[in-house]
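USER: For my understanding, would you kindly supply a protein sequence with its structure tokens?

ASSISTANT:
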Amino acid sequence: MKKLVIVLIILIGMAICLPVFAQDSSDNRYSDTDIYYVNIPVEKIYTTSYGYIVLYRKGVNQIGRVAIPNEWFMLSAGKSEIITLPRGKNWPSMSVFYKDGEFSHVRLYVHRVKSHETWGNLSIVADVRGMFEGVETLQLEF
């Protein structure tokens, strides 16, 4: 009898609480849009004072390059974020998200240790400022 009462109390509690946890689809900002992403393995990431230069594989023996400005990582712009990979043998990658066919944002999944082979250093005299000027979207090449 005690077990039956306990089960009934749990069922009634679930019935009362379930609507509280249900998701309201009218608040979902992506409910009426077409969102997709492309995940690309990263070959090398160069850190500069203007942002990140990411080299990625675009085909057999071909490398593509994109520049991601530092401003994209600010909350107001919100076009980019860096996510450190957990320990293990995960390889860094870049996920580029598109909303209604237009570039939305990019996520860089990077190795936590800067001595990993995917992190690179640029020469101090390298002038990369031009790569970051006026960048509003990410143009991938395949």
Observations:
- The mean pLDDT is 82.
- The chain has two helices and seven strands.
- The longest strand covers residues 35-47.
